[in-house]
Design a protein that fits this description.
Elements (H helix, E strand, L loop, with lengths): L2 E10 L2 E11 L4 E5 L6 H8 L7 E6 L2 E3 L3 H6 L1 E4 L11 H11 L4 H14 L15 H13 L5 E5 L7 H16 L3 E6 L2 H4 L4 E6 L2 E6 L1 H8 L4 H9 L3
Parallel strand pairs: 3-8, 3-9, 6-7, 7-8
Antiparallel strand pairs: 1-2, 1-4, 4-5, 9-10
Length: about 240
């Protein structure tokens, strides 16, 4: 397994943001966490990365215990947070150099991978401009490039397509499928039901709990609904 979570609980005061969650992510699959804003998806991801400590349960990521071995996990994981985390006064190329050094990569490796990733993400023409001049979609591409820079085994993407236009969303998903073809494992969060149809398996997370987990079309068939949106609304309404 790439990720194994057992009975995970994380609270903020009286709010139980993650409430007894158990799930597993197989190596080489695209796994989706589908849920509305505030459902606990980002909190769960932060627990996986060792950013948050949790009260109960256990986490193993790439055969490492979290949080005890979180540094080993971070060395092998590319993480794209929901908020775009690039320095606007630096160019995309300079951002890649900065983050690559944080990953512990040497400059020649960073330059080689930056060249490949900018071609992959169609950023060649923007590599030397101030990131301040980039569109929101281009900044998201740079953020994705940073997540891919260490050539990670596991890629965790928190709402990577939020606020982007339909064409860029399609391009992102084309990239995700290519990465899967390279043997990468991808965990992606989204609140867009149409996107969840593109994953191998999906977990529906509402109010801190996993209410359904499986292949998207299998879940629709089991619940007798014609779309993931109907499934989402059924569980969100508590029915």
């Amino acid at each position: 397994m790439a990720i194994s979570v057992e009975d995970l609980t994380k609270s903020f005061g009286d709010l139980k943001a993650v409430d007894g969650v158990s799930l597993s992510v197989h190596r080489g699959e695209i796994f989706g966490l589908l849920g509305p804003n505030g459902s606990g998806k980002t909190t769960l991801i932060h627990c996986l990365m060792g950013i948050y400590r949790f009260e109960g349960g256990s986490i193993r990521v790439l055969d490492h215990e979290v949080p005890g071995q979180k540094l080993e996990v971070r060395r092998r994981t590319g993480f794209m947070p929901q908020e775009i985390s690039i320095y606007q006064d630096l160019s995309p190329e300079e951002n890649m150099l900065f983050y690559g050094r944080l990953y512990g990569l040497d400059d020649s490796t960073i330059r080689e991978r930056t060249d490949r990733l900018f071609e992959f993400l169609d950023l060649e023409e923007k590599r030397s401009v101030s990131s301040r001049t980039l569109s929101g979609g281009q900044r998201r591409r740079v953020s994705l490039g940073i997540a891919l820079l260490p050539d990670p085994d596991l890629i965790i993407l928190d709402e990577p397509t939020v606020g982007v236009d339909p064409l860029l969303r399609k391009q992102f998903w084309d990239h995700f499928q290519e990465l899967k073809g390279q043997g990468k494992t991808i965990l992606i969060t989204t609140h867009i039901t149409d996107e969840a149809l593109r994953v191998d398996r999906v977990a529906l997370m509402i109010r801190g709990k996993i209410l359904a987990l499986g292949r998207p079309r299998d879940l629709m068939e089991q619940e007798g609904v014609s779309s993931l949106e109907d499934l989402f609304l059924r569980f969100e309404g508590g029915t």
